[in-house]
Amino acid sequence: MKIVTAAQMTAIEQASEKAGVSTDVLMENAGLAVAQAARDLVGAAGVRFLVLVGPGNNGADGLVAARHLRRWGAEVTCYVVTGRLETDPKMVRALEYQVQVIDSAETAELEQLLARSALVIDAILGTGRGRPLEGQVKETMACLAKARSASRPPKLLALDLPTGLNADTGEVDPSGVPCDVTLALGYPKVGLLNFPGTEHAGAMRVLGIGVPPGLPEETEIQLELLDRQWVSQHLPQRPLNSHKGTFGHALVVAGSRNYVGAAYLASQATVRAGAGLITLASPESVYPIAAAKATEPIHLPLPEDEDGRVSAQAAQSIIGGSRRYTNVLVGCGLGQSNGTTKFVEELLFGGEGSGLSELPALVDADGLNNLAQIAGWPERRRGPMVLTPHPGEMATLTGLSAAEIQKDRVAVAREYAAKWNVCLVLKGANTVIAQPDGMVWVAPFVNPGMASGGTGDVLSGVIAGLMAQGLAPAIAACCGVYLHGEAGQAIVSRLGNTGTAASDLLPEIPAAIRRVNQS
Q: What CATH number does the domain located at 6-214 have?
């Protein structure tokens, strides 16, 4: 599913018109879809709705939705905030269905309308407005904010975009009012997936509005929202006559004396994602603890330094058997020192013929912090690489501040994926996955329950397990991010968003795969 800017949406609508589907038809489709969604939310017959109507296409969509809700027996009032004529065809049709229409009135009257409504539909401003809110629109939003702070507030549904939310950046006008649900029409807009827009928009649903398929203006967009259907089409197949060798042999290099759990979480997630064989290479002091807890992996103890981190010479203990592995994950809980930096350098860039340098590699956590210390690493020759930084690790790699990275996550991920020739997974709410050719995917998950230590180790293990089964790095990254998010949503729906442990995710990964495959 494409994610669009305001300009791209306009271009798609213009192309749709040329292809024979007019803007008026798109409006009618959009208004019906919004009405159906509103009915699903609170019902229709006898329910009081208030539609806040603006001057443009967003307001027209709201009038169409009002007409259908009234047709289904709802009590519907359209409050015209600004700029609509009684001769407007959408207004005329709404009046034909006995929709009550009120031009912007005294504040007291609007407050009464808001207090009596079960659901308010914000159809004031859409993608065509980027300047600060002012005048009657600002006054209306102040009344809406007051109503939403009452002891029994109406539900608030935004049509395409909440008024005051910038479609391209996610910035929110100070007068904007947070919504319960935003119904994105046709395609999600970029701003709905950037903070603070994501939080302001509430739950997002995307509604089809009948745009003709295959328009170049759509297909050429290199930004997509991950969904179950896409992931189900790309997950590895499991033939009936398969065996453990069918699904690859992942090498997981993880752990140190202070971070034993990282080795366990990453290796177990690789198991749960379906890899056939897993070797866990960890420092000698970590090995007995990890082996007692993780019984499925093959264990490879590594030489360590006096602080319990892998020694600089430990790579040689791995390289000798490198031909048996299909891919490598390095970094979870590894720690950082001069020795670990030398270890990571030899493991990833040991030169042609070393074996490991030719394998697909995923670098996470302290692997990334050590990678940042290797001069000129992007120019070093090796096989395909996936990097999975959170904003702090991305700051270490790039020299940007975390705030600069978070301001435009898609642009930063796209730039550095191309610059470094890697698949880049920028973790966080709405995780971003970028590949070197400019294609970017965004995950639909925003889950504070996942904000606990070790969840990133699980994500790395899931991606590594999918890579072991033969998925291309970017495809494995997209599927892994989605499955990880799906598992997290399942846990939070059961336990709530406080106190979730990373290990809770492990048994949920196979269940997430099953759900996605059945969708």
A: 3.40.50.10260
